[in-house]
Amino acid sequence: MALLTSEDLKNINRQLEEADSAVRRVTGLDIKEVCRALYGTSPSCEKIGIVPVTSGNGIIGNFSASLHAITQYFGFESFVTDMPDVSGYYEAVKKGAEIILMADDHTFLAHNLKNGKIANNQPCTGIIYAEIASRHLKADSKDVLVIGLGKVGFPGAAHFANKGFNVYGYDADKVLLEKAVSNLGIIPFTPSSPRKFSMIFEATPCANTIPEFVISKNCVISTPGIPCAISDELRKKYDVEIVMEPLGIGTVSMLYSVL
Ligand code: NAI
Ligand code: PYL
Ligand code: MG
């Protein structure tokens, strides 16, 4: 899995505020309201324990601190444990955490110890970014383009399909594209048959994956992908609205899904 860097997480509060403003412009709702509508849940003072994990590539310098800032931005009470790993988990429970947040290099989870619900960051990220794009107030049709059909993109494409959108999908990996076509009934997007989209969802670890010929006016790009899927030049040329943030939107989606 593509791992975040401390650089990605710099100024996380400003990144959250900018993303929240973009979500409001696109949908008329803020991120919390989108989560409430998506999951039908609302927080009731759950205490969150954030546990650093040293396995694999180890601790990312500001990952836990970013989760602390993110959970507080969305109105949760939270703390980062002093100890990592098993000792940190023990500390979190002893300090009264009701929800545990922790991540190794493969899985970032939210576990609600009270109701037993557990969430994985990858599907929760795909679903929330798809939900945001699907609520685009000025969409010019029900057509949506999904670029990247992996651990984040496939659940996002499935969410669009479940909501009745016409999903055009593309992935550099033909096996994954075929899996999405056969399992979700999406339409394989081929650059040879170009079309324009006002809703684009991108979930790849590559830059500039969105070509100019797919961008319509009033285009919204909803993308958890890191680095950015569109060049600044194209973004300015077409006045594209972009919803993009490195960790917080996916995290709050996880939290609302386990309430
Ligand atoms: P993944 O590796 O499971 O899926 C990525 C997919 O993109 C692969 O199927 C790959 O074939 C495809 N791909 C790569 N280059 C492509 C290109 N040029 N054109 C079309 N398809 C291309 O990765 P995963 O877990 O789905 O993550 C996707 C991205 O989302 C990563 O950059 C990851 O860091 C990021 N991410 C961001 C989060 C956030 O909150 N912003 C949360 C979780 C992941
Ligand atoms: C959850 C992020 C979103 C994109 N890539 C995922 C990632 O970087 N995962 C690794 C997270 C490791 C955290 C480290 C720590 O500081 O606790 N184990
Ligand atoms: Mg995010």
Keywords, please?
binds magnesium ion; Rossmann fold; globular; 2 domains; binds 1,4-dihydronicotinamide adenine dinucleotide; 259 residues; alpha/beta; binds pyrrolysine
Taking all residues together, what is the mean pLDDT? 97
Coarse structural class: alpha/beta
Task: Provide a count of the helices.
Answer: 9
Strand portion: 15-25%
CATH class of the largest domain: Alpha Beta
| Count of discrete structural domains | 2
Gap from first CA to last CA: 27 Å
Q: Write out the distinct hetero groups bound to the structure.
A: 1,4-dihydronicotinamide adenine dinucleotide, pyrrolysine, magnesium ion
How much helical structure, as a percent, in the residues?
A: 25-40%
The strand count comes to 11
CATH-level-2 architecture of the largest domain: 3-Layer(aba) Sandwich
Radius of gyration, in angstroms, nearest whole number: 18 Å
